[in-house]
Design a protein that fits this description.
The chain is an alpha+beta fold. The chain is built from three helices and five strands. The protein has one domain: YaeB-like fold (2-Layer Sandwich), CATH 3.30.2310.
Length: about 110
């Protein structure tokens, strides 16, 4: 998949190893790089496992339309399909098999 970032600051924090370690520490930095590589290696969002350890899942409420993958508890990588409009299945809902571009929004503790 094609991975882009919501801001320059987020791109730098995720792309420059020194910045990643400085912002989140060595353990989370390694896991973040692993998750970003998994996203880039996948053909579509449907290829990212909803089971642990990745646990890719769609969020609800004020984060509807966004997804998260686990990093180091309780932190998660938050992203969304980078489409306008997002690809939908005929019966409604997101068609994960057609999502080939994602926009990384943030790394946070959503609890």
């Amino acid at each position: 998949m094609e991975v882009s970032f919501a801001s320059r600051g987020m791109q730098k924090a995720c792309s420059v190893e020194k910045e990643t370690r400085k912002k989140w520490g060595a353990t989370l930095a390694r896991r973040l790089q692993q998750r970003l590589m998994e996203l880039k290696a996948a053909d579509t969002l449907a290829d990212i496992s909803h089971l642990p350890p990745t646990r890719c899942h769609e969020l609800t409420g004020n984060r509807a339309g966004q997804f998260s993958v686990d990093l180091v508890h309780p932190h998660r990588l938050i992203f969304m399909p980078d489409y306008d409009p997002v690809p939908e299945m005929p019966g409604g809902g997101l068609d994960r098999t057609k999502v080939t571009k994602v926009l990384v929004l943030e790394v946070c503790d959503p609890h």
